[in-house]
Amino acid sequence: MKIQAMMLAVLMLAGCGTVQTVAFSDKHSTEQLKANKSYCGAVPRIYSGVTYDFCLLHAEKPDDVDAFNYKNATPGLLVDAAVSGVLDTLLLPYTIYKQQADGSIVIN
What is this structure's pTM? Predict the structure, then answer.
């Protein structure tokens, strides 16, 4: 049971905005936001997970998804933004260093 719970936690965190921006490469994060047609031009590394989630909320609605299902996805992104806020706070020393060293993640 413990193994299943850990695997579920890992799968849930794989889609987390903080994991998308901190653990994966900048190219991967940029491609994800471009694929979702986000209007964001850059994502700062400090609190990048929360910013990533709000960039997804500020993206165009996909053509192949009806409005009902799209609106149902919004609470999930807001929950992910809250979890990302906690993780971003824990990773603050690292992300401050990365912001100084590499700057923001430029999307356009």
Answer: 0.79
